[in-house]
């Protein structure tokens, strides 16, 4: 029985903002609010990912045809290789088509390129670089090496260029975002400390103008080659899951790229879009035609318009500031305006504040602060009051809490994190009602109908469980007039959230794009409906087809469309599942093995390119649930390969 996906409705807890570009440093922020809806309709958590709208053409080099199969597997679609794209008009049902690089130019002349998404893939293991003329004829370019990161990087790349993941949509919901600017001449130098450098950052900027390409003659070129820059971007993507901001800063704005050839900037920024960089920094001084072309070609990348003035005479209140903002808005999603030094605006700004770090060889711009310095300044000004955070459960300490404490220290945050036992009835209520309460994770989760949590997210309402309690923005009481956030005229809203389903979804989409699950069968094993509810919600967000249950019968708001296994015969009649999720406790985990063996040998066969299967175990080895830390195993083409994330 096919599952019915309910139409999207407004979530219970939302951040409302205007659709205009987000201003940075000097432009006035759009107001944010967190209204809470009273409706209780169960809806899909977000739009179900759609299949690729066009045929994906994978251009590969001689002897590198395995990349075609890998692309098809990540997309969960059938594939073929052709010597000419004109054959696609003869009724081929392949969604992924591979073609040799030597055949591409002729093939594109024989077909309609608007029906294709052409990706030039190139393996750099042999030290070679892609043909730039060939890449210019393609929509995108994927550079790769045969490393443990390959499949994950390919999934991230495909998910972005197909619009199935939108990092900026998630970041827009945060009350504050920062990005770290790497100023190393070679990304290799940043890798040993990259995890430390990026703590507190929401994105990583690669300063292309500061890269120094090694030269056999010992004299570095003022502009690194596209070959070198492409491999640097590939290397950075392999070592961070944060979005990448691609920046080519000119000499006038404290960079090193020469300004005598604006088309040089276009070539590099256009290639960054083709490489699938999430953010592209486009300087306002560039000719309008270049900025317009980049905006038209950006795909699913986000353009940041950049303006810097280091003269010391520029005024935020001048008509010139309004004119610059209006011009920036025309071809950008985010507007960044920075004047000389600008330390106060860097601290007060809430949208993509650029930050530095003591481990960097140099600061990226005058006046740049570290995340710790910004937090200290905000705390001194009273804008970042001390909050008490809690880990509430049947344990005293976890790796998660120790990690959080290290982050607090690294970022100079004034908060404290305390682990406490669940205790008798009323313990949680007594903790969260304290004026200094800043949030809590709860393990095991509590009911979404708990009376002392006045608002819950749509996900928590549908799942029926709250594992995270957050504090919403203070809201003025009617007729109270303006008050401080600590004043009696404001109220804080406690919001119950469920983070477990997000962890499940994130794990499932590390090695497959979201649309790979669309319409595919799934099996969930659990001892009760409450144990399985987060997994059900996550799978529905991916648009899976039939969902079969083992060990429980669902009767709650998520029950529609679920079909229980009632006998061995019902197992035999079910199609080959694409994903199997176990929420069984460790002492019952062996019950999964017969099902895995059965479908590995007896399940209905599927096309070779779509035989990948995913097994996800939601229990930790210690026997206790650990938030969103999941062990997973991928089963592909009847062969099991394991990894722990």
UniProtKB/TrEMBL annotation:
Where do the record's region annotations for Disordered lie?
Answer: 8-48, 471-492
Q: Where is the composition biased (Low complexity)?
A: 478-489
- InterPro entries from the xrefs? Aldolase_TIM (IPR013785), DHquinase_I (IPR001381), MurA_subfamily (IPR050068)
Q: Where is the composition biased (Polar residues)?
A: 11-37
Q: What Gene Ontology molecular function terms does this protein carry?
A: 3-dehydroquinate dehydratase activity
Q: What Pfam families does its record include?
A: DHquinase_I
* The protein's name: Putative pentafunctional AROM polypeptide
């Amino acid at each position: 029985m096919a599952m019915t996906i309910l139409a999207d409705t407004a979530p219970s807890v939302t951040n409302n903002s205007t659709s205009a570009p987000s201003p940075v440093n000097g432009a006035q922020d759009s107001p944010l609010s967190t209204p809470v809806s009273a409706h209780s309709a169960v809806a899909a958590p977000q739009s179900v990912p759609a299949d690729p709208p066009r045929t994906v053409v994978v251009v590969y080099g001689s002897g590198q045809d395995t990349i075609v199969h890998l692309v098809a597997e990540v997309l969960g679609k059938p594939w073929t290789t052709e010597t000419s794209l004109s054959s696609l008009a003869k009724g081929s049902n392949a969604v992924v088509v591979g073609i040799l690089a030597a055949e591409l130019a002729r093939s594109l002349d024989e077909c309609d390129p608007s029906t294709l998404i052409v990706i030039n893939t190139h393996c750099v293991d042999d030290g070679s670089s892609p043909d730039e003329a060939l890449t210019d004829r393609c929509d995108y370019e994927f550079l790769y090496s045969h490393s443990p990161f390959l499949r994950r990087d390919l999934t991230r790349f495909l998910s972005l260029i197909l619009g199935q993941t939108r990092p900026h949509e998630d970041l827009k919901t945060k009350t504050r975002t920062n990005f770290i600017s790497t100023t190393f001449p070679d990304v290799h130098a940043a890798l040993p400390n990259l995890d430390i450098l990026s703590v507190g950052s929401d994105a990583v900027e690669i300063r292309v103008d500061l890269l120094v390409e090694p030269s056999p003659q010992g004299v570095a070129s003022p502009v690194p080659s596209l070959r070198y820059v492409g491999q640097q971007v590939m290397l950075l993507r392999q070592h961070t899951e944060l979005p990448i901001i691609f920046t080519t800063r000119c000499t006038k704005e404290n960079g090193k790229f020469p300004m005598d050839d604006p088309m040089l900037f276009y070539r590099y920024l256009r290639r960054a879009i083709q490489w699938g960089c999430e953010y592209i920094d486009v300087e306002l001084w560039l000719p309008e035609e270049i900025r317009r072309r980049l905006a038209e070609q950006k795909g699913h990348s986000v353009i940041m318009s950049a303006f810097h003035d280091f003269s010391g005479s520029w005024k935020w209140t001048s008509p010139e500031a309004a004119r610059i903002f209006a011009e920036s808005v025309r071809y950008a999603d985010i507007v960044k305006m920075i004047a000389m030094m600008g330390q106060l605006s860097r601290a007060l700004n809430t949208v993509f504040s650029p930050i530095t770090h003591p481990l960097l060889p140099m600061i990226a711009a005058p006046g740049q602060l570290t995340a710790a310095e910004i937090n200290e300044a905000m705390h001194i000004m009273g804008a970042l009051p001390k909050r008490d955070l809690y880990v509430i459960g049947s344990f005293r300490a976890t790796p998660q809490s120790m990690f959080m404490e290290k982050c607090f220290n690294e970022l100079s945050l004034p908060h404290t994190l305390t682990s406490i036992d669940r205790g008798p009835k009323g313990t949680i209520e007594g903790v969260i009602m304290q004026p200094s309460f800043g949030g809590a994770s709860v393990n095991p989760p509590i009911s979404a109908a708990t009376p002392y949590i006045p608002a819950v997210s749509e996900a928590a309402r549908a799942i029926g469980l709250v594992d995270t309690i957050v504090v919403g923005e203070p809201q003025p009481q009617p007729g109270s007039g303006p008050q401080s956030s600590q004043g009696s005229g404001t109220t804080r809203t406690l919001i119950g959230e469920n983070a477990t389903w997000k962890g499940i979804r994130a794990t499932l989409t590390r090695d497959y794009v979201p649309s790979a699950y669309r319409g595919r069968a799934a099996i969930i094993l659990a001892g009760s409906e409450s144990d399985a509810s987060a997994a059900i919600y996550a799978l529905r967000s991916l648009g899976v087809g039939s969902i079969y249950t083992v060990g429980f019968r669902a009767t709650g708001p998520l029950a529609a469309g679920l079909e229980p296994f009632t006998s061995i015969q019902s197992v035999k009649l079910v199609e080959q599942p694409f994903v199997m999720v176990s929420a069984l406790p460790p002492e019952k985990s062996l019950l999964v093995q017969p099902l895995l063996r059965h479908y590995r040998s007896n399940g209905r066969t599927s096309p070779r390119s779509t035989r990948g299967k995913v097994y996800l175990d939601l229990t930790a080895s210690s026997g206790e649930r650990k938030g969103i830390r999941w062990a997973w195993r991928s089963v592909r083409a009847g062969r099991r390969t394991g990894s722990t994330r």
